[in-house]
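Problem: given the chain below (208 residues), write out its structure.
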Amino acid sequence: KMRLEQSGVEYRYVFDSALAASKFGFTAANASSYSNPLIVSLMGKDFQIVAIPSATSFIALVGSVGWVEQGSTKGLVAGDLTALVTTVYSGTQAAVKIVDKDGNTVTDLGVVGTTTKPFTYGGSTYNVKVLQTATVTVAGAGSNQAQLLFGKGDVEKTFDGGTTSTLTDWGADWKIGASGLGTDGSIPSGGYLAVTYKPDSLTDAQRY
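Solution.
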């Protein structure tokens, strides 16, 4: 048998080359950039990094991200639910409603902005927020669109390896953090993101 201690298993994503903060729109430490996030895959899950507050932490989007056209029936999907945009407003706001896979309205959230708005469905908490709004030209006409962040559980979170640096999908025993990141929003060569098996407690029997 192999004996496993706390923090005995760790998966790392190591950056072989340095990445300047400006490459991803990070103007400074803890300055979020939603327009050009750094996408990193950890254990099969994409993390869209939007800010690096410190050498040992990062802020990432872990929900679904996508542009939704005002009035379109093709929205942003999370599980069995779809977020639709009924009206786009100025000031990074949009009216959002949630429908199920059959197109039935689950809830009308009203105006949603840059603050996460929660709702409950099927015993689970979902969250949605607006990241950006824009008017683009489609077939020669202006189209109002909103970029949404939508998902079950956490959709945007700071990961620093602490007790709450977890994902619902992976469970509380797997902590997510970082080491060797820049203090100005950059990522030096050799810096890494890590997923560590680190339960809050571990009995002797569970070590084998």
